[in-house]
Design brief:
heterodimer; A: 333 residues; alpha/beta; 11 helices; 23% strand; B: 360 residues; 12 strands; 33% helix
């Protein structure tokens, strides 16, 4: 995809702060990215790196207080979502942007039938009558490969298994044909064999429906399998962005390189000892004035402590927030 | 049925272990059935090795690990640790056995008492099982904190002041306090971040080398088990479907479930990922309260045969040290095992394939 292609979602300088007892936590710091139509953007990072908070900030899904989106612009269909009124936002959620949450056990309402929950956005956003919504709901369940779709519409969430519930979540998110689908760790709570089923389903649906997808995960293996482009987050910032093959072949940021090395594989050679990233992820109690990865970085220089590196371009579609230059093999240039 | 003399000493012998939880109904809590969490499991663990136990959630791997230390009263079967059958031991005798077997729990947040200091937590097993003086005890606590890489300055802090990885180190120090021989690690890294997981796994390996520990490493993370384990047992719905040396299992999985499980693990390599052939299983794991007739895996197996719906396959040694419970390997079994024993058997044994006693 060329760099100049139309974007569906444009995020610029997003900052989200949580007010906590005794101070603030700066969870998201100046995050900017674009999503193009039909693209699958992978977002990787450890817990606490700000990946979920970033996506939830976009749609105003964070409770405020304690959360506060302090700065930034989120452009979607010519509007800034951060300046929208609650009722305007409600129209965007579900209709323009679908959201799949991490835990399928807790994100469905236990006292309503699955059919009712799929029909809700259809009736609300698209103004369908009961009968049309029911028909569409059945189609959606069939789309996500749930057998006996017509019967299962009347079942409650507890009658479904974990993998099935996640399929229902996907069906709800897809109900109004959103332009962007945000999936927040949709397979983390599932077993590998069920994860494989869901990944296969998403691969299939992408080609059928052609929407842009943001896929948040901490599993590099999942990203490698489905993403077109990857954003790596650390300490509330984007530290590297690249097309998927480029990122895995030539990671430039020391964090990305370390992350790729710490994960053992089920195939190929087995290392005698695992590589380790020493230390802990940072506590983000203030606006970062230095590189957040500096305390754990083997290649830190004085400048890393003095200023926070901005992202700079190192290749086609590839940018990295690091002062130091690494060549293709990862050695210092 | 022991075919070879073990090259290493066996520390843990599990034979026909069953762990059923009753399902009750009605006002009188009448028993109406059983959840067969662990249903006839047999394996050995050799001294100084790590046996990996993998499977999906709900397959009974954690129950198996807990039953092994008799945190549950087992329904049936024997568990011999160092020659003593702990399945039938009296409470007093079991208590005296406790120092030799310990456990590291999954959730380091929930398994540490928030009202006790680190020194208190690590020192508690010493209070219970030894008669050390106050200063001796403190010395031992400091020693343990050094061993797991915690600074001695933290001894008087409370668990909430630590990160997940550090909390897991406290849990490991507590498990080591009484110098156990055998430790059950129940998903010790599942709650940790990827960059922290490697730190904890390296620590566990280091401690094993230094102290000669034996681990049962329970995990759903197949890539991490491949790293840490010497032999791997794969569980499905309360039964061990395959048990083999690490290399053999990962290179050529035999049981259709193991094959599907391994092929489902995504690989952090986009070049291979797009072309790799996957086995996608249909459906979900059946309920352990009502397992299917015949082979437990017959409802999802891509290679299912007619016999699988009728007869439950027994676990057979198809190569030295390699056990598979599947009808696919049944006819050839006799011929293969004898051939393997005579010719290739000895060469293969030089790998880390350990001969194992067969049960059921």
């Amino acid at each position: 995809m060329p760099d100049g292609a139309q974007t569906v979602l444009h995020v610029e300088g997003l900052k989200t702060v949580f007010k906590v007892r005794g101070g603030e936590v700066h969870a998201v710091n100046s995050v900017s990215f674009d999503i193009k139509p039909g693209e699958l953007l992978g977002v990787v990072g450890e817990s606490g790196s700000g990946k979920s908070v970033t996506m939830m900030s976009l749609l105003g899904l964070l409770p405020s207080p304690p959360a506060e989106v302090r700065e930034g612009r989120v452009m979607f269909e010519g509007r800034d979502l951060l300046k929208c009124t609650p009722s305007e936002l409600r129209k965007v959620r579900g209709l323009g942007v679908g959201f799949i949450f991490q835990d399928p056990m807790t994100s469905l309402n236990p006292v309503f039938t699955v059919g009712f929950q799929i029909m809700e956005p259809l009736r609300r956003h698209l103004g369908m009558n009961k009968e049309a919504a029911r028909k569409r709901a059945q189609e959606l369940l069939e789309l996500v490969n749930i057998p006996d779709a017509a019967q299962r519409l009347g079942d409650y969430p507890h009658q479904f298994s974990g993998g099935m519930r996640q399929r229902v979540m996907i069906a709800i998110a897809l109900a109004c044909d959103p332009k962007v689908l945000i999936a927040d760790e949709p397979t983390t709570a599932l077993d590998v064999t069920i994860q494989a089923q869901i990944l296969e389903l998403v691969r299939e649906l992408r080609h059928k429906l052609g929407m842009a997808i943001v896929w948040i995960t901490h599993d590099l293996g999942v990203i490698a399998g489905i993403a077109d482009r990857v954003i790596v987050m650390y300490g509330g910032q984007i530290v590297e962005q690249a097309p998927v093959k480029e990122l895995f072949a030539h990671p430039r940021h020391p964090y990305t390189r370390a992350l790729l090395k710490t994960v053992p594989s089920v195939r190929g050679a087995r290392a005698a000892k695992l590589n380790v990233i020493e230390g802990q992820p940072p506590m983000l109690t203030a606006v970062p004035t230095s590189c957040p990865f500096r305390p754990r970085c083997a290649n830190a220089i004085e400048r890393c402590a003095a200023e926070n590196p901005l992202r700079r371009k190192v290749g086609p579609g590839h940018d990295v927030a690091c002062f130091r230059d690494f060549d293709e093999k990862g050695a210092l240039a | 049925m022991l075919d070879h003399t073990p090259t290493k000493k066996t520390l843990v012998e599990v034979d026909g272990l069953r762990m059923y939880f009753p399902i009750t109904a009605g006002l009188l809590r009448r028993k109406v059935g059983d959840v067969k969490a662990v249903d006839g499991v047999s394996f050995n663990i050799y001294e100084g090795e790590t046996l990996g136990l993998v499977g999906e959630s709900g397959c009974g791997k954690s129950t198996c690990g807990r039953a092994l230390l008799r945190l549950y009263n087992v329904t049936e079967g024997s568990i011999r640790i160092g020659g003593v059958d702990i399945a039938t031991l009296s409470h007093d005798a079991l208590r005296r056995m406790r120092p030799t077997m310990q456990m590291v729990f999954q959730d380091p947040q929930a398994s540490l008492n928030p009202r006790m200091t680190v020194a208190g937590i690590i020192g508690e097993p010493l209070d219970e099982h030894t008669k050390l003086s106050h200063s001796e005890k403190l010395e031992r606590i400091y020693e343990l904190m050094d061993a797991v890489g915690l600074s001695r300055d933290f001894a008087n802090r409370y668990p909430h002041a630590f990160s997940g990885g550090q909390r897991q180190r406290i849990g490991i120090a507590r498990a080591l306090a009484l110098s156990p021989k055998f430790i059950v690690c129940d998903e010790p890294i599942a709650a940790l971040d990827v960059s922290i997981q490697a730190q904890v796994v390296n620590l566990l390996e280091e401690l094993q080398d230094r102290l000669g520990l034996t681990y049962l490493f329970i995990s759903h993370d197949l890539s991490m088990v491949r790293h840490i384990a010497d032999r791997v047992a794969v569980m499905y719905l309360g039964k061990i479907v395959e048990l083999a040396g690490r290399e053999a299992l990962y290179e050529s999985p035999k049981h259709p479930y193991t094959q599907a499980l391994l092929s489902a693990v995504p690989e952090p390599n986009p070049e291979n990922e797009s072309s790799r052939r996957r086995i996608i299983l249909t459906g979900d794991v059946p309920s352990p309260a009502n397992p299917p007739k015949g082979c437990n895996f017959c409802t999802r197996c891509p290679k299912v045969m007619e016999i699988c719906h009728r007869v439950e396959p027994a676990s057979r040694e198809i190569e030295p040290g390699r056990f598979v419970a599947c009808h696919l390997y049944e006819t050839a079994t006799t011929a293969e095992t004898t051939a393997a024993h005579n010719s290739a058997g000895k060469a293969r044994l030089s790998n880390d394939n350990q001969p194992t006693q067969q049960g059921v």
